[in-house]
Write a structure and sequence with these properties.
The complex is a heterodimer of chains A (about 350) and B (about 800). Chain A is built from 12 helices and 10 strands. Chain A is rod-shaped and about 125 Å long. In chain B, the strands form 11 sheets. A 7-stranded mixed beta sheet of chain B has the order 30-33-34-38-37-36-35, with helices on both faces. In chain B, strands 3, 4, 5, 6, 11 and 12 form a 6-stranded antiparallel beta sheet that branches. Classes of the chains: A alpha+beta (about 350), B alpha+beta (about 800). The structure holds zinc ion (ZN).
Amino acid sequence: MREKLEQLRNGALQAIATASAVEQLQEIRVCLLGRKGELTALMKGLGSLPTDERPIVGQLVNTVRDEIESALTAAIESAQAELIADRLQSERVDISLPGRRPLKGTKHPVSLVIEEICSIFAGLGFSVAEGPEIEHDWYNFEALNFPPEHPARDMQDTFFVENNLLLRTHTSPVQIRTMLKQKPPVRIIAPGTVYRCDSDATHSPMFHQIEGLMVDSKVTFGDLKGILTVFTNQLFGQKTGVRLRPSYFPFTEPSAEVDIACVICGGKGCRVCKNSGWLEILGAGMVDPEVYRHVQYDAENISGFAFGMGIERIAMLKYGISDMRLLFENDVRFLRQF
Amino acid sequence: MNVTYNWLKEFVDFDETPDELAALLTMLGLEVETMEKLGEGFDDVVVALVEEKRQHPNADKLSVCRVNNGTEILDVVCGAQNFSQGDTVVLAQIGAVLPGDFKIKKSKIRGEESCGMLCSEKELGLAEESAGIIVLPPAIAPLGTPIFAALGRKDTLFEIGLTPNRSDCLSALGIARDIAAKLGSKLKYSKSALVEGTQTVESLIGVTIESPELCPRYAARHISGCTIAPSPEWLIKRLNSIGIRSINNVVDVTNLIMMELGQPLHAFDCDRLSGKRIVVRTAGEGELFTTLDNQQHILTVADLVICDAERPVALAGVMGGLNSEIENTTTSILLESAFFKPSAIRKTSKRLGLHTESSHRFERGIDIDNVSRALDRAAYLIVELAGGVAAQGSIDVYPGEYVRPAIMFRPVKANELIGINLERDVILDILTRLECQVSASTDGAVEVIPPFYRIDIEREIDLIEEIARLNGYDKIPATMPIARVVSDRPSRHQEIEKSVRDLLVNNGMTEVINFSFTAPDAAVKLLLKEDDPRRLAIKLANPLVDEQSVMKTTLLPGLLETVARNMNFRSLDLKLFEMRRVYLPGVGDDMPREPLCIVGALSGSRDGDGWSRPTEPVDFFDAKGIVETILDYLDIGGVSWRTESPESYFHPGKSCRVFAGRDCIGSVGELHPSVQKNFEIEKPVFCFELDFEKLVTLARTKKTIAAPSRFPDSSRDIAMLIPEELAAVKIIDCIKAEKAKEIEHVQIFDVYRGKGVPEGFKSIAVRIRYRSYERTLTEEEITALHKKIITNLVDKLQVTLR
Ligand SMILES: [Zn+2]
């Protein structure tokens, strides 16, 4: 019995040593250790031994089995490691080929700029308001202190439709609609489409504006300057110089044009800023008391500011676009770059 | 408004350079839009002295001169005859560049060396024609002085973009006045020492105002015996420098005074005025009048006219008449200086399309107090330049003298609103500098009477603005407001709009934005039926072009034009969408409706260029898939796809309308070949349209989420033949009708036509995944259920199993 075991052990270890493939080793395991394997058969023969020998031989069988088992495990592991090493050696992809990616679309630059500006103002506590594009003269002009026949109406070439309606020339009527609906405090931003009957390289008959309005109990012109400074710094980068200079809008007083230091040349002067170093980006001012009168606010006890800017102009500055018409030609070779 | 640096200096003293002055004006709200340096670049053209002049040895008509430019003596060959030795002349030195890009170089002329050129006015661009070279007055300036500096022509032209409220700055005086107020310096008025004759003006002319509400003031003077002639050099130059062409001495004076003092004037040939009198009245309805530009106008009762005893002679404040204008033979003049009601002038000018420098000023409002000053100075200059005698006195009809009401002004309020902290004295000093009369009142407030020329100042807020403006916007500190907290969560509409736009972009769609207006024939191109409500578009009363004359009732035309344009540029793989408003007429007196819509268009290959997969063209199901993605995202239930009554612009066999319950919420389809042709689109296009407003109403924001089953699944397939007419969805419906909760998922995984499938049939393969929430299903249970489903399909839909 002992000799048989010894033979089996030696034969097995030799077979394991010479086998190289994982499948071969698995086969050896079945032949020796399986249910019908040689070692199992030997185990079954234990019963025929004398009682006192059984434990000794039994232990020996176990030792031999453990020995074979560990040799097999080691051999299988190394065969598997070799297999992996072979795969790693032989398998290759050409990683320079382009990746397979889901198609990506793009938002129109006008939408992108509107979203960005709205999110900056959301952070300052302004909510988004909207209004109709086909407007009454009253909301677009009269309530904003443009009386009929006023020369300031010439500043805005208007498209008219029937029934005393027009295509709004600015987003400012949203101010009126908002103030008629709610009492102060008011803090809104109103993006939207506007129209002027004017068309050339720098004017489009349809374009976009964002209007802002803040009315509360003690809002100052200095606050307007503060809010616009924070806004321009967030939109164009920290420390963008901001300049307010006197201007005129019928619905604000005092009124201001707001310039930023030219983002192209940094203020040294270039073609874009007409060598002034400044770029006009928005109009603003303190809400005129006449506007409060139209919306039944008490001008003595509240104050506020309004501002408005052209989205296309900001998009052009942000992305370095020189011709406004590109924005409405919708050439996908242009749009896919955003 | 054009004004020059030197001109402003005549009215106010300042030390600022032209650049500094431009900055100062801009920060006063008088924006300098452009700045043009006059007489720049001629620094190599200098004052020189002809020391010696001799005959050119080889040419009769030329001379050789020894010319002193202050530093050296040069030989210059010259062809002109109008000068002699010892004259002061103008030398263009080597290196100078004259108008027409004419460079002066050292040259040899008929064998004699010439180091420069003696210039004529024409060569310097100072005159159209000139006979001979310029001979300057002796010792006009040190030799070597650049010519424009010597002539005092070095100047800077400012082009100022005025806002409509600042009509007071439509003159050099007005701009100078603002500079003086800012700098705190004194304004210098120009000279007018008119010497009058003995004959009284009343004996020569008369003025009657019949419409005092439209013409509150009318002043006139009479000048006789003058001679119409070209203006002197200084006047021509001044007018040219601000872009006005010289006409003759009298007309030039009226133009000069308008630009200098802001008062438009008109000079009539008095001998052509019937009755030698002026009547200011409104025109008769249909009255004809020919303005001096030889245009005939039909007037209305709203137009104000200046008449003589018989007929209109001028369109008040707008333009004079051909019948009374100054001619070369004119000797006696009636000079008008008046104030007309701004709105009346504006109406007439606008209706007749006659916009003149005069109407521009009157319609914005001029200084009623300045009427006689301007008249006197103009009369003085006319007598100076054209000779003649001014009659004694002037006629000044000014029935109801203007009085400006005082404005109650609180310095504290100014500080509060602007966010500054100026001393009361500083604030009041600013008002005084603006020529306001300030008098003390109660409670710290003051009464302020603004000057007549500032017609824009009427309220306390107007004065507050002046404080901010004169003190300087740059001196206002930037602060952050103290505000009350308000809830500002975006509305449901806004949130859904943003997320749907994101969803489309993340699904490969590119956003476009087209104009809101389109061509009137867009409806025809889309084959819309005669009774289609989308044919009722809102029309623009004053479109720029016919192609942009009606508001869109559907976004398709713009999107299809975009597709065509991109295909023309060989961009053939297109996945575009537009999310914008359409404009539908209101019912009755209601405002138009402006619902937001979504349209999409797909064409070309599905995945773009790739090396790893064959490129397949997009089809109906790509468009439908996008719609499904949106509906799924918004969790809109009860969706059905219906083929009855297809949209006219879609292929009837490859399109459907989308319903959610009973609401039609959109449509999907391949573009009708005729529509494709109408829009000149090369390749098939697949489109979808959705009514965004309905999506917002139907969207479910609360989803119920089920925990997944922990038991194993088992899938079974069914392959069957069904008639072409049978919609695949019926198979799914039939399987789901079994309502077995063990059916986890049903999926069509193959649709096949062709070999092995009889004509008129299609082969459909369906995979059903079974799974229970409670336990592992046994083979027997699944087989039983699957058999039941197959029996249903065969019995109810007569499918043939394969
Ligand atoms: Zn620049």
